[in-house]
Amino acid sequence: MRVLIVEDERVIGERLERLLHEAAGGDPLQIERHETLDTARARLDGGDVDALFLDLNVNGQDGFDLLAQTTAEAFHTVVVSAHTDRAMEAFEVGVLDFVGKPFNAARLRTTLDRLRGARADHPAATLAVRSAGRIEWVPIPEVAYVRAAGSYSELVLRDGTTRPHSKTLDRLLGVLPATFERVHRSYLVRLDEVRQLRVRKGSRYSAVLASGEEVPVGRTRVEAIRARLGDG
Amino acid sequence: MRSLLFLALVLASFGEAVAQDVAEGRFRLGDDARWADPEWDDGDWDRRPLLDAPDTTGILWVRIDLTIGDLDAPGLLVSAAAAREVYWDGVRIGAAGRVGADRASEVPGPIDAVFSIPDSLAASGPHVVAIRFSTFHRPASVEGLLLRVTPFDLRAASTALYVPAVVPLLFLGGFLLVALYYGALFVADHRRTPYLLTSLLCLAVAALLVAERWRMVLGDPYDLHGVRLATIDGLTWTVGILLVGTLAIQFAVPRARTALAGVAAASGTALLAVPDHEAGAFVAFALALVAALGVTAWAVARMRPGARWALGGVLVCLAALGLAGRDFMDSAFFPAFGVLLGGLLVSLGLQTRDQRRRHEAALAEAARLEAELLKKHLQPHFLMNALTSVIEWVERDPAQGVQALEALADELRMLAEVSGERCIPMRRELALCRTHLGVMSFRHGVQFALDADVDPEAALPPAVLHTLVENAVTHNAYPPGPVTFTLREERADGRRRLTLRTPLAGAPAVAGPEGGGLRYVRARLGEVAPDRARLASGAEDGAWVTRIDLPTEADLCAS
Question: Which residues of A touch B480 (CB under 8 A)?
């Protein structure tokens, strides 16, 4: 996993790097440390970073403005900040984790678990989407389902329109609310949108959504889905 | 007698409207008791206007033919810079002083004197007035006899003249009241100089009013006329200088004393250089008014509170001066000056209100600043980041960790000590800055230092430099290694300039919206030196340079 740290206090940055290595154990991390977001930007744009550990108060700037830009990207954003009172605010815009200062290795192990596929403590309320160079906020309740589109994803909204998102399905699932379920290799669906499961020829399944649209359901996932729908 | 004196005063001031001066008479040098006789043949006497009476020091007679109508209470005003005896149709009706044949035997009398004419002599028709003068006590500064003879009806005059007589009384009462009020305010309210100057200004104007208009009440003998004229000149000059001084100090004009000395010299020179007494006073006062115009216009340009009112008053006075011309000092001075004083008082009141509001705001501000300074260092951003670094040092190298903790404890203790102060000596501020830099050296892995060449005892508001140093550390990304900030001090013209240079590194030097730190610094400076402290900062040669201009500590920090 490739990790980028942006922290303007050098000693804290060094500590974060040291403890991340310690928490990663047998699964080594590649860590790069930056003291300003400007120097980190080129590296982030390169596209091979998995997670950004971001101090929200870099060089006296309010980092919350930055979150819109970083959460729209393919990599996960983890906030490392003294302002624990602003954790919910950060989660709502789609950060995977919020690590309060001071922190220790145990706390960072939880973060690494989330980076490896566990879901965030608090799901996002909106998703930042970059379209035509601008950031657009898509409220989560508007999203009906998400489908994979190559190396990125496509949010399909209730009104039928779509928005591209740079994150993969796996990473989106990490920050989306628990009502979103993976129904297929290439689909995340909001379960409360599903009206029925339909069996098709050749024992293929699909979920019929409130809009009448059908979304394919993977054979291996049918039972789990049926169980969760039954719960509802 | 008192009422006669009062009437004389009124006539002297406003007489033209109700009584007609006699235009001419026949003069003769020498002395002869028979010259009082109305039948005396004065055909060979020197006939000339009264105002052009012969200039002499010996005994002089004048005979005047005049015609009066049917008067209820006939009276005669005779003004002259001479001792005099007045005869009406050959009957002596009174004297002012005692006419003498030489300086020793003459007794000077008042300039203005009113004589009542016995009813038996006051039939309507022609009469002959004869006046015997001697002028041995006339001062050199008084030119001519200043002779004025006016017959009038005492009863008609008394009703027609009471109303205009009230006006100078009102002015006098008003000026004295304002003088008293501001004198009391000065004693009661922090001995503010503008109050004292306003009080003195009103006193001077009141004195001028008495000197100009009340010569009859004072009843000064004519030989003191020169003293009176000199007094009027001196008071006119004083009023002008006090006016300019009051305005200059009220509006805090820079180098007010030097400017005032210049105006005083110019005005005084005008007074002495112009030979004519009235023209001299006019020019002297006009010069002072022009200076007052300059001061108030400057104050309006600087948006000083109430400056428009003062400017308006000065403009009214100048307009009256322009309209009345040479007559200004006699005809329009007191009403015009009343208007000017009104403007001055309104502006003074507005300024006082403004200062009181600022004072109240300052008290609230002091409490707010103390809370802000303490809060900033208990807020998570400072405290949690500092603790995270300290924990890292404890884990890496416990000895260093202890030092970092001690530095942090020192800084928090110093902040608590200084936060409630209005001013602290520079050495305490430097200690605070250096402790902060010590903490920051641990946090950033940079060896911060502060190189200061300043007076360690000079006072300044607390945590001002500390905040600037803190800003510099926060807004830059210094590479590992030594980083030195420099602090220098210059003094000139009663001001002290502190210059803090912090090298720029890593982060763009943007002059964005003013952050909380600079707002704190401005507020602290404003608290000790409202309107007189300056703060400016900008990038220069690879460094961020902040300059603080303060008055020297003599008047700084005195609450």
Answer: 10
Q: What are φ and ψ of residue A8, in 5° steps? A: -80, -15
The DSSP bridge partners found for residue B153 are B74
Question: CA-CA distance, B234 to B222, in Å (whole number)?
Answer: 19
Q: Which residues pair with A156 in a beta bridge?
A: A145, A162
φ, ψ at B529 (rounded to 5°): -140, 70
What DSSP designation does B21 have?
-
Q: Any idea which residue has 């790069």 for tokens?
A: A32
Q: Which residues of B touch A36 (CB under 8 A)?
A: 477, 506-507
Q: Is the pTM of this model over 0.80?
A: no
If one counts every other C-beta atom within 10 angstroms of the C-beta of residue B400, the result is 14
Tell which phi-psi region holds residue A66, choosing left (phi > 0), alpha (psi between -120 and 50) or beta: alpha
Local structure of residue B57 (DSSP, 8 states): S
Q: Comparing C-alpha atoms, which of B490, B460, B466 is closest to residue B553? A: B460
Residue with tokens 């209100």: B353
Residue whose entry in the numeric block shows the structure tokens 């300044």: B460
The structure tokens listed for B544 are 């961020």
Torsion of CA B392, B398, B401, B407, to 10 degrees: 180
Note the Cα A167 to chain centre separation in Å. Answer: 7
ipTM for the predicted complex comes to: 0.85
Q: Which residues of A touch B515 (CB under 8 A)?
A: 60
Residues 6+ apart with CB under 8 A from B2: none
User: CB of B296 within 8 A of CB of B307?
Assistant: yes
Closest CB from B392, B477, B508 relative to A12 = B392
CB B9 within 8 A of CB B214: yes
Q: Which residue of A has its CA nearest to B506?
A: A36
Residue of B376, B381, B388, B478 to mutate, testing the A interface (most A Cβ within 10 Å of its Cβ): B388
d(CA B203, CA A39): 74
Q: In chain B, what is the greatest distance between 2 CA atoms, to the nearest angstrom?
A: 132
Beta bridge partners of A181: A189
Residue of A nearest to B382 (CA): A82
Instruction: Tell me, rounded to whole angstroms, the distance of Cα B351 from its chain centroid.
Output: 14
Strand-by-strand arrangement of the A152-157 sheet:
A162-165, A152-157, A143-149, A187-190, A180-184
Tell me how far apart the alpha carbons of residues B99 and B82 are, in angstroms, rounded to a whole number. 8
Q: How confident is the model at residue B16 (pLDDT cuts 50, 70, 90)?
A: very low
Contact B390, B408 (CB under 8 A): yes
Q: How far is CA B549 from CA B418, B452, B467, B515, in A?
A: 21, 17, 16, 20
Q: Which two tokens stand for residue B65?
A: 């033919």
Q: What is the largest distance, in Å, between two alpha-carbon atoms of chain A?
A: 62
DSSP one-letter code for B557: T
Q: What would the pLDDT profile of A195-221 be if each residue is shown by its tens digit? A: 888 888 887 899 999 888 999 999 888
**CB A228 within 8 Å of CB A194:** no
| Contact criterion met (CB below 8 Å) for B467 and B517 | yes
CA distance linking residue A62 with residue B198, whole number of Å: 54
Element containing residue A54 per DSSP (H, E): strand A51-55
pLDDT of B465 above 50: yes
